[in-house]
Write a structure and sequence with these properties.
- The two termini are about 30 Å apart.
- The protein is mainly α.
- The protein has helices spanning about 10-35, 50-75.
Length: about 80
């Protein structure tokens, strides 16, 4: 059996953040630039809440997709 010295959830999380941090920073910068160029860039037709409504809809959709994927995985097992 191979032992992984120091492999802990905390170190895994630190490594993941170190890898994803620069990507998320660049994504944030791109989104802020788009928003400052056009305040309606994240406007959904029929929704007057603007960027906040866009993010709420996006997060809701991600959660629903995650639940649906979990249900599919449960059906497969």
């Amino acid at each position: 059996m191979v032992q992984r010295s120091g492999a802990t959830p905390w170190r895994f999380t630190e490594g993941l953040v170190a890898c994803l941090g620069p990507i998320l920073d660049e994504l944030y910068e791109a989104l802020v630039q788009q928003l400052s160029a056009d305040l309606n860039v994240f406007h959904l037709p029929g929704d007057e809440t603007g960027a906040i409504g866009f993010m709420e809809t996006w997060i809701h959709t991600l959660r629903e997709q995650t639940r649906a994927d979990g249900e599919i995985a449960d059906d497969v097992e």
